[in-house]
Amino acid sequence: MLSSSHIHYTVRRGFTLIEVLVVIAIIAVLLGVLLPVLAGARDAGRSAVCLSNLRQAHLICSQYADTYDGFGPAIGQPYGSAPNWALVVQTEAKGGADRAGSNPGEIYEEDSVLVCPACQAQTSERMRRTYAMNATGLAGLDGDRGDYDARPTFMRFDFVELPSEMPLLVDSAPTPRGPDLPPATRTASVIDFRQTDHVAQRLGFWHGGRARGRCHAVMFDGSARAFEGVEDAWLGTLR
Prior knowledge:
The chain is α+β, with helices and mostly antiparallel strands. The chain contains five helices and five strands.
């Protein structure tokens, strides 16, 4: 029989309230440091994808112009079929499949080259097109050579002055709903930088946080980058 002097007791002590609070405080500090870093990395990834999309769309439009004597795809009309610029880009991005006569709603796809992931993250819709083509000088105003909204209108890529400063495509914003306007899953597809209402309502500032940040644009020379607003060169008319 063991004597009481040989009996050892192990006392298990729990965490004190102060210790628990210290651990919680450390976790909160770590989360406060890590979450902005993770959010920044996520935003940077979305930004990179958007710029890549714009460059690919530019390449397709540029190749189209090379094929058709310098004329790019139609800026606006016909909105529901080729040679509308967005449908030309979507079709070629899908491998050049012949989709003539297809329902445009089937041609446009989620997570396609026409969708900016930053725009997708900030809207409640599953977006299918989030870029707009520059129509400055081809919008049917006095002195314009064409009217993209009335008839098929094509710009001459080889006539563009300062191609490194003139945008071809930009991030765009959703427009009000209406019978002749894009559905909720598509943002504005055309923008005239001379029109203040177009700039205010159609230019999409999706990058740099939920507050008004920056829009992405791809120039006629194929370079793509972020902008805080309309540059003076953007007001130049196209031919």
